[in-house]
Structures are given as C-alpha cells and as structure tokens.
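Each letter names a residue; the fold follows as tokens. Both lines appear below:
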Amino acid sequence: MQVTRRTILASAAAAAPALPRSPGSANNRIRVGIAGVSGRGNSLMKSIHRLAAEDVEVAALCDVDASALAKRAAEFQQLTGKPVPTVPDMRRMLDDKSIDAVIHTTPTNWHSLGGLWTLQAGKDAYIEKPLALTLDEGERLVAATRKTNRIVQHGTQCRSGPEILEAMHLLREGVIGDIYLARGIGHKYRPGIGQLAPQAPPSTLNYDMWRGPAPMKPYSPNQVHYNWHWFWDTGNGEVGNLAVHSLDVMRMVLGLHEFPDRVQSMGGHLIFDDCKEAPNVQTSVFHYANRRVVLEHSVRSGYTNSEAGMGEQIAFTLGDRRDAHGLIFYGTEGYMVLPDYISYYTYLGRDRKAGPTRVGTRPPEANEPHLVNFFKAMRSRKKGDLNAEVEEGRRSAALCHYANIAYRTGRTLQIDSQSGQIQNDPEAAALGRREHRAPYQLPVI
C-alpha cells in the first residue's frame, strides 16, 4: 500500500465519528461489509440476515474469486429479495463511508492486513479465528486497535454461547473441585489432498491478491479454498483451525490472562502421503507454573474413536459422531465433558456419579449470540462489552502459534508469561514473524 493512501486512511480513522447512540434512529442502523464469502463468510452473512431485529444489514460483499462472489450475491438476493453491492478488492469496500464494520473471513494470511486496513479506514472489525498468522501480527493488531480506539471482535463464537457460559459458571463455582488439567480434542477425519499440480490459475481468481502478503508460489487447485489451512504461508494447520476454539474456552473458563511459561508439541504428517505441510497428528501441552494447571490439545485427522463418550453425547453433529471435537475439564472432585460446545456433562467422585448436565438445543456453529455481542459493543463504544476482544483473540491465537513453533523446531519453548515473548531461542522466535510481500506490506499505524 502506498504512503499516500496510508496517510489518507489514517486521517479518516482519526476523524471517524462513533455510531449515533439514539435508539430507533435511521442513522443507528449498522451496515456491515463481508470480506471473503466462502465458508464462514457465507454462514455469517446468513446470520446477519436473521438479526434484522438488531437493526443491522449486509451492505457489501467482497471476494477475490469472481465466481464465488457472484454465487454468494445471487444467494443473498434470493434470501433478502434485494441485490447487494459486490467488490473484488476490499479497499473499495473500505472507501465506502456508509459501512460501519468489516467482517474478515478470508484465509488467515489476510487477517492482519485486512484488519489493519479496516482500522485505518475508521471502521470496526470482526476478525475470524485465528486472529493472525503470526505472533507479531497479533501484537500489531492489538496495538493498532488501541491507537485507533476501534471495536474489534475475535471470531471465537463459543465465548458468547449460553451453554458454555453456564458451564463456566459451574466450573468456577467448583462443581468438579480445583481444575488441574483441561484437554481439547480435535479429531476429525481429513482426507488427503494429493500432490501439488502447478497450473495457470482460473481467470475468475485474482491469484496475486489471494496470496496477498504471502510469498508468491505457483497456483495449484488443491492449495486454495479450504486447503489453505494446511500450508504455513497461508494457515496454521488444524491447531489454528480447530484447537483455537478449545484453547480459547479453556483460557476463558480458567481466567488465564497470562501466557504459559513452557510449551511442547509433537506429532507428524503421518496418515497421508500428500502435499500438506502442517501435521495431521499433533499433541501440544501448555504449562502454567503460577496457576498449577496444564492445557493440552490433541489433533488427529484419521479414523478415530470418539473419546470420553463424546459420540453418544453430541446433540448436533456436522460430521461423523465417532470423531470428537470438544473439551474435558479434570478436577479434584470429578470431570466435565463438553462434547460439542453446546452441551455439558459432569461426573463426580470415585463412582463418577452424574452431576449437572445440559443438552444443547441449537447448532454448535450458531453465530448470532457472538454477532449480537459485537453490535452491542459497536453501539456502546466500550471494548469491555466484547466477549472476545482483540487482546483475548491475540492470546488464544498465540497458543496455536507456540504449538506450531514448538512442533517445527522440535524443542520446548520457554516463554515470558507476562510479555508472551519466546526466550533464549532466536530460531523459534523468528518463526513468530514473517516478511510481507510487496505491495501487501502491513501499514504502520
């Protein structure tokens, strides 16, 4: 981005007024743009449509894939009965002064740049998980949020789930005693994707912009769309995809605002002979000396059992019930299983007698409570109203980055629990940042 544009956007951010506070005013309507319309973008678009009572609307859609953008715009018109503006470059959406916030559901390599551009434009942001591709980018997003005084929500929607909040209350009240271990499970069957097959990108895809800050590499159809998760230039593997939810809920329940002091991670690319760079079997351990608690997360992408009865307990499933994607909290008086992020089961004492239980009645991917929380904070202009404020997003994403860095170096990381900086290991610390390809360098705010 050129300095002239950065200067203009920075000035706009400084001069941008807060949303009007008068309830019922026509000017109090929140207009939202969505950057990245496949997957999560599509889900959030539909959720916002269902929130008409919150006086919000989707004002624009953006994607670098013209075919995906046209498809989503047609679906939007069928859903709402009216057309929606579409743009191939999010900067055009940011130029629209009538848009109040941008939801970023792009691949992770775009989260930091898209977020910073949004803050510069004087708009609020909802940034999907994980917050950023690297430790450094997460720090820069937090610093820019503080400087611009914007509202930034992290897309870990479990923090707004009523069932999760109820379970958190029980755990903090000591339903299972003192918690000494929290374990996250991310066991989903992920088939192999084959080897890279370099070829010309389709004419409908702006591949240069799709790669954005990442190094330019030849296009291969099995490296884009969802598969970008498995490559270090664009994603953070299954740890950044699934584990971030588990780790975020663990931190919230336990009130962990500090960083761990030690992190270990081991595993490998063991199941398929394909081009994925990230491991498909990985176990990571996060040690908190001052709190006498350990967090653990296990990734497994092959055929697997459900674990801890999760298959039988899942109220809603998006796949195979024999897989497992949930949490287990272990305490001195029992344990609690959260099999699908909308239900919980407790088992108490030596006999594992059934304790407080709640079975969810809504899909686990429901976005509405988290979006409502975001819009409430936009209107109040109080970051403390956010359930997943950008600093919480940064700290939960950091756990994913530590796990991957420990895995890639094969070493235990020593971490300053206050600053989050990796200690006494320059090679590991270097993996916490990256170079950004021109002209997609991160602006300084």
In short: The longest strand covers residues 179-187. The longest helix spans residues 390-409.
